[in-house]
Amino acid sequence: MRAGYSPDLMAKPADNLRDAVEKTVEATLGSAERSRSAAQGALDDLVESVEDLRKGAEERLSRSRRSVTEAIEGRRPATSDDIKELKAELRAIGRRLDRIEERLPAKRARAKPSSKRSS
User: Fold this and answer.
1) What percent of the chain has pLDDT over 90?
2) How many CA atoms are closer than 13 Å to the CA of 112, on its beta-carbon side?
């Protein structure tokens, strides 16, 4: 050992340096944690906004589909199935009308117009 040189004096600057480095690391970690937390919050907000936009777009798309479907349904030409259904319905109406007419009282004979005309 050197004269006038104490190991405590050497230890003290090393301890001070170690303390300073630890404080710097802790401050950096704390700052990084705050930055990470802030970034996570911003990301959560972004995800929520994107989800809201997606839901809104889906709702508007669904409404548009319904509107287009309704507009087309009223203007589309009849299919062969539509025509078959209409024919079957007309036949059923015809049969009902025939049954109703059968129950009506017999028609009276119309008075024959006279052959004499008034002058």
Assistant:
1) 34
2) 3
Q: Which residues of 96-107 are buried (b: 16+ CB within 10 A; e: fewer)?
A: eeeeeeeeeeee
With beta carbons less than 8 A apart as the criterion, state whether 31 and 24 touch: no
Q: For residue 72, what are the domain limits?
A: 11-77
Number of domains in the chain: 1
Q: What is the pLDDT of residues 7-61, one digit of tens each?
A: 555 568 778 888 888 888 888 877 777 888 888 888 899 999 999 999 999 999 9
Note whether residue 4 is domain-resident.
no
Coil/strand/helix, residue 79: coil
Q: What is the residue whose two structure tokens read 């710097």?
A: 24
Range list of H helices, the chain: 7-73, 80-103
Which amino acid makes up residue 25? V
CB 36 within 8 A of CB 30: no
